Amino acid sequence: TQLLEQSPQFLSIQEGENLTVYCNSSSVFSSLQWYRQEPGEGPVLLVTVVTGGEVKKLKRLTFQFGDARKDSSLHITAAQPGDTGLYLCAGAEGGSQGNLIFGKGTKLSVKP
Amino acid sequence: SQTIHQWPATLVQPVGSPLSLECTVEGTSNPNLYWYRQAAGRGLQLLFYSVGIGQISSEVPQNLSASRPQDRQFILSSKKLLLSDSGFYLCAWSQREQFFGPGTRLTVL
């Protein structure tokens, strides 16, 4: 069974600080998605990374896929209170079903 | 553009009562459809997925069932709810990446 470990589970920081969230597995994924979820809402897709070593930037968010496609990181620069939420990584198993394996998430709180 | 709807948004049901949650997708054809349950601190657990009408795969044994009577309709059901069925239920669709609905908060008392 493939597993995705996310760390840290909880993160509370001050506005303006930088942070990195990690997503690790012993398995190889065909792609990896990062989602952000606010309380009481469904997860919203932020990015998909496909190629080993790939780096994608979304404003102050930088996503990296490990060379071996087993791990990923999300780095936020100068965090803002609007970044508060649950960040989920999900690895694609491949195949036509498109099933995803989800990490348990990192709950980020950015205080003004 | 594609949109996904879930209803109801919130539901409070007594133990032993039946359940029916509905999910519909607009703006796409023949999507893969998924039901997840999200319990606090436990991430998303895949319950069912469907690659076509009438095709349902179950990921975990439970007292829930799913049906796909139409291409863009996915229904989650139970004949008798248990306390442990409480949680946040999410429907998702994909043709490559997965996109989620707004969710249904189910409380079983």
Could you characterize the architecture of this molecule?
Helices cover 0% and strands 53% of the residues of chain A. Chain A contains no helices and 11 strands. In chain A, a hairpin with a 6-residue loop joins strand 4 and strand 5. Chain B is built from no helices and 11 strands. Chain B has strands at 3-7, 10-13, 19-26, 32-38, 44-52, 55-58, 64-70, 73-78, 87-94, 98-100, 104-108. Chain B starts with a strand and ends with a strand. Chains A and B meet through strand 5 of A and strand 5, strand 9 and strand 10 of B.
Name some characteristics of this structure.
heterodimer; A: 112 residues; mainly beta; 6-stranded mixed β-sheet; 5-stranded antiparallel β-sheet; 0% helix; globular; B: 109 residues; 7-stranded mixed β-sheet; 4-stranded antiparallel β-sheet; 61% strand
Spans of chain A of at least 5 consecutive residues whose pLDDT stays below 50 are: none
Radius of gyration of chain B: 13 Å
Beginning-to-end CA distance, first to last residue of chain A: 41 Å
Greatest chain-chain contact? A-B, 20 and 24 residues
Instruction: Outline the low-pLDDT stretches of chain B.
Output: none
What is the strand and helix layout of this fold?
The complex is a heterodimer of chains A (112) and B (109).
Chain A: E1 5-7, E2 10-14, E3 19-24, E4 31-37, E5 44-49, E6 55-58, E7 61-65, E8 71-76, E9 85-92, E10 100-102, E11 106-111
Parallel strand pairs in A: 2-11
Antiparallel strand pairs in A: 1-3, 3-8, 4-5, 4-9, 6-7, 7-8, 9-10, 9-11
Chain B: E1 3-7, E2 10-13, E3 19-26, E4 32-38, E5 44-52, E6 55-58, E7 64-70, E8 73-78, E9 87-94, E10 98-100, E11 104-108
Parallel strand pairs in B: 2-11
Antiparallel strand pairs in B: 1-3, 3-8, 4-5, 4-9, 5-6, 7-8, 9-10, 9-11
Brief account:
The complex is a heterodimer of chains A (112) and B (109). Chain A is 0% helix and 53% strand.
